[in-house]
Amino acid sequence: MKVLGISFGTKNGTNDSMCMEALMGAKEVGADVEFIQMSALNIRHCTGCCACAKTLLSGKGNMCTIKDDDFEWLLDKMLDADGIIISDPIFEEGASGLFHTVTDRFGPRTDRGNNVIGTKIAQETGGKIPDHRLLKDKVISYIGVGGSDWGTRVQCEHAMHALTPMWKVIDNAWYPWAKSILMEDDKLAEVHQLGRNLAEAAKDVEKAEYKGEEGVCPHCHNKLFYLEPDSTKAICGLCGMVGEMEIEDGKTKFVFSEEQLEHAHETLSGKFIHGEDIRKNEGAFAELRKTEEFKIRKKKYTDFITPTTVR
User: Fold this and answer.
1) Which of 1, 76, 240, 275 would you label with 295, given CA atoms 20 to 30 Å apart?
2) Whole-angstrom distance, CA of residue 150 vs CA of residue 54
3) Which residues pair with 32 in a beta bridge?
4) What is each CA distance from 168 to 108, 202, 208, in whole angstroms?
5) Nearest CA among 19, 121, 22, 138 for reference residue 62
6) Which strands sit side by side in the sheet containing 225-227, from one edge to the other?
7) How far apart are CA 29 and CA 15, in angstroms?
């Protein structure tokens, strides 16, 4: 059983320590542990070219056009692990920029639904079968470390990373006012237990259950919602289900119809629905780009100005 710890904080900083504390807990219950310090890696931003999705859904694997950074090495380490612990500093109330970059690079390339479809297409056409590890269940836990109480987006943004490959989130903790957390034994004990929980869950992924604090969404444990003005309509910011916000016994309650479960973003049914929508939209856009009117409109902008570059 392999448990990988990844710290997105400064070298030898608080996030490194929290990640290692959790790894100590994981090791206590039998895990082989490994630690990665993200600041030592070169991870380039996703360009949004969609080449990974296009090759994947045409039976040619899921290649990325970016070849000169450390992402492939990082992804291999993550796919090889049975469980992952991520410690991340809170930036502007949410996840760090580097964490967002990694999440973006996961993108459609590691999407469970896309890989199910891509594998089937490759098998039928004799193409390149995607890495089988992308279809393997995995457990993951997140730790958000903040210097103040500004962190209301971080749990949702962390869990968004797991949503793409459909990895099971076991714990999703965040600690406000955490500059002195190394001196707070109760908090260290929680982080230590988070590591133990993750390792125990990795022993039997099928039976693994969420151990974190209860959220407002009863399906994905999220607390962040998109609320429409002049309405009680609400959209879960994580699983995307649409429902209503109600007040019951003085508590906020998110209520949705059972059919919404088929649309949840971290389910295969929801991914297939989304994938079909994207396929139709991309197909229509590809045809639109061939028209003279589109070319004329596009030329207006390319002729207007050229980008300034670094010399």
Assistant:
1) 275
2) 39
3) 2
4) 18, 10, 8
5) 121
6) 225-227, 233-236, 242-248, 251-255
7) 22
φ/ψ (deg, to 5) at 13: -90, -170
* CA trace torsion 64, 69, 70, 72 (10° rounding): 20
* pLDDT at residue 208, rounded to an integer: 97
Closest CA to 138 of 165, 102, 100: 165
First to last CA, the chain: 50
d(CA 1, CA 199): 8
Could you give the C-alpha distances from 208 to 15, 18, 75, 84, 214, in angstroms and in order? Answer: 25, 23, 23, 14, 16
Lowest-confidence region among 43-47, 62-66, 220-224 = 62-66
Range name among 53-57, 114-118, 291-295 with the lowest pLDDT average = 53-57
Model pTM?
0.94
